[in-house]
Structures are given as C-alpha cells and as structure tokens.
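Request: Have a read of the protein record below and say how the chain folds.
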Amino acid sequence: MDWLVNLIAVIVALASVLAALGHVGYLALLNNAAGKRAGGAPVAQYVRSRWAVAGGTTAASLFAWLLTAGGTGLDIVAIIVAAGSGAVATKALQSTRDRYRTGG
C-alpha cells in the first residue's frame, strides 16, 4: 500500500512541476516579446512583478518532488505541498494569460 501512496505523490508532484514550469515559460515568452516591441515596458514591468510567484511555486513543486523520496508520511506532505503549489501556479498562469489574451 505504501507504493500506491508514493505513486500518487510522484504523479501529483510531477504535475505540479509541469504547471510551475509552464508559468515560468509563459512569463519568459512575455518578457521576450515585451523587450522586442516598442511600448513593451508595462508588460515587462508586470512580468518582473510575477517572477516571485513563479519562482516560489517552482521551488515548492521541486521540494515536494524531493519529499517523495521519503516514507509514507513524507509522501502525504509532498501531496499537500505539490497540490498547493500546482494550484497557485495554475491560477497565476491563467491570470496572466487572461490579462494578455488577444484575438480569438
């Protein structure tokens, strides 16, 4: 039964890492595009303000993934940390995408 809890923890941690890295990647793309366009300073300033959230969620996700190497108790903690950081990263990514969505 311990292996099942560990498997769930690893899957949740990996999903959290992917969500956090998706947010980091989207911010990097926005920052790159803002740097190439005239008048992109407000977007670049917004991106700079969001790096802390992106870095924090990435660090928490990676920490949760590291916790999956422990026992069942640490797996449960990893699930909680990964679910929380993944939810925050997903919400932040959606917020940023909604703010700069054009066309469509």
In short: DSSP finds three helices and no strands in the chain. Residues 24 and 54 are 6 Å apart (CA to CA). The helical segments are 2-36, 41-67, 72-99.
